[in-house]
Amino acid sequence: MAKYRKKMKDRRRKFNNSVVFNESRRIGGVSVLLQMYRKDNRRTSKDYGVVLRTYIPENQTTFEHPIDEWKLRDYVETVTGTRGVSIAELYDKKNIKQVLGTRLIVRRNNQHQPKVLFSSQGLGTSGELAWKRGVTVSKKAFVIAVYRSEAEITFQAYYPKSSETLTTELKTPTLKKWLDEEEIHVQKRKENKRRKKIARCLQVCDDYREGRGFDQQELIFSQNFLREQHTLKTSLTAGSIGDSAAEEVTAIEHSSSLLLKEENQKSLFVWLFKRLMIRPNGDTGKMMLVLEYQVEDELRDEAAVLLQSICRRYIVRCRTYNTLVATTIIMIDPTSKRYYLNTTDGSTSWELPLILYGWSLPEPNDEWIRVKESAGGDGYYYVNPARGQVANLSPDKAAHIIQQLVRNYQSRHFLPHCLDRVIRSFKFLKTIEANYNKDKGRLSSIINFAVLSYAINHDEDTARPLFKTALEMSPNNPLVLRAYGIFLVASCETPRKPNFARGIEMIEGGNVLDPQHSKFDIAMKCFFQFAALLDPFNSKVFVTLAICHQVFDFFFLV
What we know:
Layout: H1 2-18, E1 19-27, E2 30-38, E3 50-56, E4 61-67, H2 69-80, H3 87-90, H4 93-103, E5 104-108, E6 114-118, E7 128-137, E8 140-148, E9 152-159, E10 164-171, H5 172-210, H6 216-258, H7 265-273, E11 276-280, E12 287-291, H8 292-327, E13 328-332, E14 338-342, E15 348-349, E16 369-372, E17 380-384, E18 389-391, H9 395-410, H10 419-438, H11 443-456, H12 460-473, H13 478-491, H14 496-513, H15 521-534, H16 539-553
Antiparallel strand pairs: 1-2, 2-3, 3-4, 5-6, 7-8, 8-9, 9-10, 11-12, 13-14, 14-15, 16-17, 17-18
Helix pairs in contact: 2-4, 5-6, 10-11, 10-15, 11-12, 11-15, 12-13, 13-14, 13-16, 15-16
């Protein structure tokens, strides 16, 4: 018994998994339970056909209607108005509900027992037949049957020439809203007509007062009409405005509800027949039966889409204009002829871009603008649109070059002009002390280390005995005489006057021995000018450098 229960439970579970639609509805005034499930509920099955099971509680009868996959696809494509639907769309509850709403019919047999039929031509309705007659719709003769229920009204139009059956539905809330809107439009038209009539009567009275031509009967009618309108306005301003507005709304609702009553059903159908239209389907091209409010809604939606597209195009055009204004400039060539330059891709044109027609670009400014090289290049160049000038240097880089030239000119007396010279000087200075420690008796090592200690290291105590030793070893060496003389003049040692005179004497002696300064030129650049480069804020360094320049110019104040 337990195995049987488990088996039945699994069977019910599998069946419930195969159910794609469940609903209860009234068809032709009869309550019907609807259930749709797949024919083959295996996961690996590619058969998407279904079985529609209907149950009528009134006589407890069940009907099954098998539907193949290709038929179900055709039904869904018909109600959705599209071609080619997916499996998810095929089993979508909304689509299945529309399919069943147009194809289920309830008929009674001779014993007056209800029976559910599935119409392959889409002749199903959810109401009872209320009226049937021949009507001309869009210049075509149709036989229209009207089925009415509490929730909706269904129109079935049969076209004899092609044996087509067209169907459309109108929900009761939508019908009531439509009737109210129509009544409001009628009231507005009446109000507009009344206002035009008042305006005409006022014009006739003005013509009478000003002595212009007028008709006596029209004048009497106008005066009486204006008097009636004035009396009506006075009664409204006496405190009954709110009551009259409420009465107007009540009158509109009352007039719309009159047609919904059963005794006025024929008048309602005649009113609806006048508003039936035939339109081609946009996807399939087949005829469609629609109501006037549906066409108005479509036109309203199309107008809204058109306005939105116009607004979006205008916004995009404004953004594009702002972008082009930021990237497109007017250039003036040397012949004073104007052309247009795109700063993002470097392209040029004699004519304004098409998208800018109707707009105007601002006049070129006297400023430098960076432009990307054309033909796919990665570099940039710079233009001045007002002057028509083109340069490969940016304003900042050009300013740096000019500043560097000015600095070089200003520092020409104390800074080396070449980076290689600075490197060579730095390497030479690093070897001086090592060479002196290796051979302290060599004149070149002594004088080089003496100048290094004084000019670079600012160590006068170390430099003084070295200068004396070098002078004793070579009293007629022009380099030793000039270097020691500069040291005596710049150090200002006591007694100052004798030392200053002695230093000048040594410098003059060196100038006599080496008038071309060939012996002192390297020392000047490698020691004294390099010292100014290393320590530009030391005043004593620049005093020593100034004395060196006086050595070259043979000018001293004694």
